[in-house]
Design brief:
By secondary structure, this protein is mainly α. It has 5 helices and 2 strands, in the order αββαααα.
Amino acid sequence: MSLLLWLVLALLLFWGVGLYNRLMRLRARGLEVLSVVEKQAGTCVGLVKQFVGRPDDQGQVQVAAQWADVHAAALRLELTLAQPRLAPLQPNAVAAVSKAWADMQAAWLAATEGPTDLAGPVMPPEMQEAWAAANLKVQSASGGFNQIIARYNEAIHQYPARWAAPLMGFHAAGSF
């Protein structure tokens, strides 16, 4: 009877270690991909600052009227990305970054689809190309992030793990 008890305890221990390692790998991969999303979103903020906001002689940033919303949304995204997050995968932390990114995209679309000027295109072609490339990278990385987080959340909510995961400090993560 004692041998059977030790075998069951060993089995539970090995299962617990395996579960912990699997969840840690998924969480680490999610954090890695989230940092890629944030880096590419930061690239878009840099593009907006480079092309939209230009400092004048006194160092004040001058923004054209049609780009004021884009510039403001970029600054909000930059502040959101710069905020320290104790648990970056928590749903409210991911939702804040996702909302700031969506606001910046909406402002960008509103500015680019606005009436054109007689002097030429609303934005330089190199900015359009750079934005398209960075936007594609953000969309790709956020799709990968959502897939990883879906697997992570699924692993946490599977039958025996749903009782052990919270005890190990694992909680559901938010998607982008």
